[in-house]
Amino acid sequence: MPASPMTILHTADWHLGVKTYGRRDSATGLNTRLLDTRAALEATVQHAIDASVDCFVFAGDAYHTVDPTPTQQKILAECLQPLSAAAIPIVMVIGNHDHPVTFGRASSLDIFEHIEGRVHFYRTPTEAVQVIDTPGGPLQVIPLPWPVRSRILSREQYRAMSADDVRAFIEEQYVAYVQRRAADIQNEAEGVRADGSPVALSPTRPTILVGHVTVQGATMAGSERTSLIAQEPKFAVSQLAVPPIDYVALGHIHHAQNRNAHGTVPVVYSGSIERVTFKERDDPKGFYMVDLAPGRTPAATCTHVETPARPFVALRVDATDTPDPTDAIVRAIAARDIADAIVRVRYRVDESQLTAIDHQRLREALAPAHTIAAIERQVEATERKRRTHVKRDDDLASALRQYIQQHDELAPLADELVDAALDIQAEHEQAPERQSSTP
To answer: How does the average pLDDT of the chain come out, rounded?
Structure first.
C-alpha cells in the first residue's frame, strides 16, 4: 500500500557570511550583506512553517567559510530555531564550504550532532538508509555529503594516489554506495532510525537522496570556483536517480535547476538563497517545495519559490557619440530600478570626452542604490594604445584593463577578469569587519 503524500522544503548554499559589496548597518552594526542572507533564510524557514512541511532538507554550504564567526553561528541557530519549535525535522548534509581541509578538524556544522531536537546531520555517507520520522510518516533518506579528500588521503593505502586517481576513486565509491542503498530499499532490508533502532525499509515509502556533489552538465551561476569544480568528482544523472529514489536534493551549484526535467526522478539543485557576485545578477534565488506521493508517476513534483534576494544591477553605457556623456549615463541610470540594489556602472567614452564626465552627478544619480560596486571607465582604443603604463592614480579596473590591452590572448576574458578582480577587492575591503562584527 502506497505511503501518504508528503511535502518537503529543499534548500542549500546559504553562504552565511558573504559580505561582498555590503556596508555597516547603523541599527545593528552588522554588515548589510550578512543581514541580506539572514532575511533570505528567515523567509525560507517561515515558508516551511506556513506550509507545514513534513521535512526541511538542507543540502550543504551553510556558511561561506569553514570558520564562521560567533555572530554568524548565532544567526544560523536563531534562524533554524522556529523549525524546532514547529516540530519540523531538519535533514542536513555537509558541503565543501562547511568542512575544513585538514583531516580531524571539526566542521562548522558538527555542533548540530549535539543539539537536542529533530536535527539529522550527516558528514559522511551512512552504513544504512536513514529513516526520519515526520508528521507525514517515515521518510527514507540516503545522505551523500561532500566527499572529503583529506579523509581518504589520511589512510596509508591511499596516500600515493594522484589527484585524478582520488577523483576516480570517489566517483566509484559514491556510485556504488547509492546503488547499495537503493538495493537495500528494493529488497526491504533494514534501515536505521535517528535513535539507532532498526526499521524495515520499503520501496513504497517516500525516498530522497540528499547530496552536495557535482552533476555532469550542470549550469553554473558563475560565482562558483569553476577552476576547482573542473577537478571535482562528477556524477551522471542516471547514477543518482536510481529507483526507488523519488527525488534527488542537491547543493553546491548556485543556479537553480532540474537536471532530469524529462525523467521521472527530479535531480534538483535548489540554488543559493542570496546573490554572491554580479555573475548571479539574473538568477532567481530561492528554494524548492517538493510534493512526494509514492505510487504516482512521477512520485515527486517540485516548484521553485523565490527568496527576497538583494538585486544586482549592471549598467553598460556607450557614450562615445553623445554631446553630453554625463547626461547619457545619468539617463541610463534613471531608466533602471536601482532602489536598494548593488549597482555597477561601466561607461565607454573617447579621449576627448574625459573631462566632460561629472562623477559627482553620477554618484548623485546612484544615490538610491544600496551600494555602488564600481563606476568603471572604458576609453576608446585610440587612447588605450598610447597609454601602455599604469598610473598611480588609476583605479583597479582601469589598471587591469590597461594590462589586458597589452596581452591579446586575454582580451576575450577582459570583463570576466575585471569582474573577478572587483569581487576580490570588495571582499578584501570588508575583511576588517570580520573581527569587529564578533560580539
So the answer is: 86
13 vs 98, more confident: 13
Distance CA 60, CA 217 (A): 20
Say if CB 290 and CB 10 are below 8 A apart. Answer: yes
Distance set, CA 97 to CA 33, 212, 219, 286, 302 (Å): 18, 10, 19, 19, 26
Residue type, 264: T
- Is the domain spanning 6-306 CATH 1.20.5.170? The answer is no
Domain ranges of the chain: 6-306, 312-436
Task: Record the cell numbers describing residue 152, joined without a space.
Answer: 581518504
Residue percentage of the chain with pLDDT more than 90: 63
Contact 120, 91 (CB under 8 A): yes
Q: Please tell me the predicted confidence (pLDDT) of residue 244.
A: 96
Residue 20 vs residues 158, 254, 372: alpha-carbon distances, Å: 39, 16, 12
Neighbours of 388 (CB within 10 A): 10
User: Cα 37 from chain centroid?
Assistant: 11
Express each pLDDT in 258-294 by its tens digit: 999 999 999 999 999 999 889 999 999 999 999 999 8
Q: How far apart, in Å, are the Cα atoms of 153 and each of 160, 167, 299, 302?
A: 8, 12, 39, 38
| 190-193 and 130-134 beta bridge pairing | parallel
- Is residue 232 pLDDT above 90, yes or no? no
